[in-house]
């Protein structure tokens, strides 16, 4: 260990981050030293009678019917993130905390060694199956202006729909400059029709998504709690920040609490990713945020969450972009080859 190491908070991506552009990204970026780790993940998938991550990632063509099946998509996202974490150059970076967005919490748990590879691969796969079987839908809507500053009018429009469909429509994820809403299909359709159209894209329905992080997931939560005992959970070896912004310190054993949060609250209640990032900045003040793959879509949401609290004077998209124009940017995305090289080399 040297004092010249930079501190970093690691962030794991959630659903919808492994798409056609990511095909082959796991295998192509995999260091030789991590081949055996991927083999362990593949072995567990074989035991589950499911396609391995290697088979999916190395397929000649990306097929939505195959790669976006929940139990396959989740495994690709988890494996991509976990392997990225293992590839970090720990001589250059000291990871002071790990967190994630939505199902990225499972990847964070694996990175923090709360589960071993076999358990995390099985649990990620199973949770994808259980939650995909839930009812409802999910859509996303921006609540910031063009410079990523909070927009009161857009926030009010979202709040109006939540009030209008109370009980049937919930805030699913607070995702930086976006509100991810979820609920019954009827409530989502009506709310989407009522919200002002923005950028010719929003409100945007998230295809194949159920009403994640709402009471519509209660049955999935109860089933998961019955299948995965507290004994399967272990104290993290690195601090974790959960979807409420709560910190789980390293080396402290609280198996039942970790089980109840992960398979209970985390599944059925709002995931506040903005608060996650804000807590990480305030409590750990890292030199960098390192965003794991697959994909490179987390950067905007991280920046928007920091702009919301004017972190270190960060007050706009333009200012964030300007600050990133340095040799070692504050936010480093492993989904971008040039930035990946900075954290693995």
TrEMBL record:
<dbReference type="InterPro" id="IPR001227">
    <property type="entry name" value="Ac_transferase_dom_sf"/>
</dbReference>
<dbReference type="InterPro" id="IPR050858">
    <property type="entry name" value="Mal-CoA-ACP_Trans/PKS_FabD"/>
</dbReference>
<dbReference type="GO" id="GO:0006633">
    <property type="term" value="P:fatty acid biosynthetic process"/>
</dbReference>
<dbReference type="InterPro" id="IPR016035">
    <property type="entry name" value="Acyl_Trfase/lysoPLipase"/>
</dbReference>
<dbReference type="GO" id="GO:0004314">
    <property type="term" value="F:[acyl-carrier-protein] S-malonyltransferase activity"/>
</dbReference>
<dbReference type="GO" id="GO:0005829">
    <property type="term" value="C:cytosol"/>
</dbReference>
<protein>
    <submittedName>
        <fullName>Malonyl CoA-acyl carrier protein transacylase</fullName>
    </submittedName>
</protein>
